[in-house]
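Dear colleague,

Thank you for sharing your sequence with our group. We've completed the structure prediction you requested, and as agreed, I am returning the results in plain text so they can be pasted directly into your records. Please verify that the sequence below matches your submission; if there's any discrepancy, let me know and we will rerun it promptly.
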Amino acid sequence: MQALLINKDDTGYTAQLGQIEAAQLPEGDVLIKVDYSTLNYKDSLAITGASPVVRSFPMVPGIDLAGTVEHSDHADFKAGDKVVLNGFGVGEGHWGGLAQIARVKGDWLVPLPNAFTPKQAMAIGTAGYTAMLCVMALEQHGVTPDKGEILVTGAAGGVGSVAVSLLAKLGYTVVASSGRAEETDYLLSLGATQVLNRSELSEKSRPLAKERWAGAIDVAGSHTLANICASMKYGGTVAACGLAQGYDLPATVMPFILRGVTLAGIDSVYRPKADRIAAWNRLAQDLDVSHLEKIMTEINLAQALETAQKQIDGLTRGRFVVNVNS
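Please find the predicted structure tokens below.
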């Protein structure tokens, strides 16, 4: 069966198409025929070797998969079940979804919601599921549509695209931040009311700035996140889920102690199963499925290799759905 394989040895770091046998698969109690996977930013880091994402070699990358159970020794799943997997170290320490077959732990799986096909589920993937967790965090902290504008950074990427779509459908006023002016029409079509150039947020921040945002979803970190915190309205909440600009946070405590701002960290990798099911159920309820065609681009395994560096360089839009069987 075909798979992407990453290796590291004395000759260097390689990522290429290869063949695997079922006997090579890692331990797990559920065997899955993979229908679709995705190319996330973390997958591109793994494929290019731009960051030490992979923890053992050889490795099949792919932090997402959607497919059909072929064999199960797990009480919750049986042959024929449609399932989704996001995270849990898959594609980093355990062989992942960029292959035609996978063996994983059943505790990592979520039933595929009836509202989505496997392809649609991967158009959402970890990015969309993370976006939903961010929206839920804003709601849990009392950020309602009447409170004011919501900022979404990295808006043309996977998390950002789904976040803009979700927030707009839920009635929020969404301001999208992007480094690419050519994506303005795309972001407006997803429901953004305004598009900012990311340079307005990416430089060194002041301790406090004029209050503007009732809430924010940030994938950048570093100076961008510091600027967002400094310009939050009183009682506002920032859901932080990424570090595309950097993992540092050159900010002060002033927004938190003078304006009661909340900085909510969003982890999607090891989120408890109940939260995962809740997020997927909300996606089934609240996501405008018609937007998925705008957000996603379908590629095959070979194209995933070619696309990885472009994604790292910030030259891609939305979500990449990988048809592992084409």
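Summary note from our side: The mean pLDDT is 96.

Kind regards,
the structure core
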